[in-house]
Each structure stands twice: as structure tokens, then as C-alpha cells.
Amino acid sequence: NAGVTQTPKFRILKIGQSMTLQCTQDMNHNYMYWYRQDPGMGLKLIYYSVGAGITDKGEVPNGYNVSRSTTEDFPLRLELAAPSQTSVYFCASSYLQGRNQPQHFGDGTRLSIL
Amino acid sequence: KNEVEQSPQNLTAQEGEFITINCSYSVGISALHWLQQHPGGGIVSLFMLSSGKKKHGRLIATINIQEKHSSLHITASHPRDSAVYICAVQSLNTGNQFYFGTGTSLTVIP
Question: Which candidate from B41, B50, B99 shows the least CB-CB separation from A108?
């Protein structure tokens, strides 16, 4: 089972460049999430989606955009990369929110902005 | 102030030792999750608790809702248990919102 797949695994960007972090899941999960993990900090929610066509901001959405055109895919877009966006990004999914389902995580994307 | 606090931040143990990692939280929750993150970076869910105690192999997780506290125990620790253990809570008011602790880095020495 593939689970949650993130690409790329590593990327170096220059300040001002843009890129899309891809996330896809094959578990037919309703809920999908993007987190960033900074050294010494807990995971912070960037954006989440409760289903196709529906997205909402999390705790740290500035500088990012998302879309959810299908159940499977939830890409995260950085339009103007800034050094503060250097982080490890995790995508996660879960089946039903509110019914206490565990989250399934991708392997992460390590992004450096130079 | 973080909604989720873990202790200790770092822990080194000899193989075979009994290990306890603590988690305290300050928000109303519908569930508490224990996650494991290996050096390669991948995160896996170990337990999801809303009350009482759960056991899986050598791992035991407990939660006290009244005291807003959870513990993760590892019996007969092994070097392969070396990882970062993360406590996360699922908000009662908005189940979409997860709050994460900063993690406990565990190293088990042979």
C-alpha cells in the first residue's frame, strides 16, 4: 500500500522562486493536512482540507496556497520562497474527522531556501 | 504557551530499561495521539487514546483526562526504539485542529 506519498523528498530553492510540493493518498481519506516542522518546534498546521473543493487555513498559512481538486491530491504551493520557509513539510491524511481517526503521514519534504 | 508540553526533551537509556515519556495538555481534547518519528523523518501513529490505557507489544500508553496528562511507557527498551516520540492532541472544539508537542528524543544504548 502506498499510503501518503510526497514529492520531492528534498529541494533547494532560491529566494523568490516558486514551487509546488505534491501530496497524494490512495486510502480514500476525506481529510488532508499540510504541516511544517522546524527544529525544536512541534508540527504546525499550514492548511487542511475536509474534502475535494474545500480547504481552510491552519495556524501558519502565510506564504502558502493549497488546492484540493480531487480526493487523492492536496498540493502545497509556495509562490515567493523566503528563507523563513526553510523547513520539513509533512502531508497527512485521515478518514473521518471527529471520530478520532489516526493521521497517516507522508515521509516529508525537506526544503531549503537560500 | 504551547498547548502540549512533553518531558523530558531528551532521554538516553540502557537497553532493557523501562522508559516513561510524559505529555501534558491544556485544551479540551477528543483524542490524544502518540507518534513515532525515526531518524529518516517518517512519522507513524502508535496510539490514539480518548480514555484509559492501550498496549501494543512493549509499548503502553495511558491517559488521565481529569489531569490532562498522558504517559507513554516502553518496557524492555531496545536500540531500535531510538526515535523521537511526539504527543499530539485533537481539539475537542475543532477536531480538524491537532496540537503537537515538540517531541522527546530517545536514544537506547546497547
Answer: B41
Contacts of B18 (CB under 8 A, 6+ apart): B73, B74, B75, B76, B77
Residues A25-79 pLDDT 10s = 999 999 999 999 998 888 999 999 989 999 999 889 999 999 999 999 999 999 8
d(CA A23, nearest CA chain B) in Å: 14
Give the bridge partners for A16, in sequence order.
none
Gap from B40 CA to chain A (nearest CA, Å): 8
CA-based R_g, chain B, Å:
13
Cα nearest neighbour of A59 on chain B: B97
Nearest to A24 by CA among A95, A92, A109, A114: A92
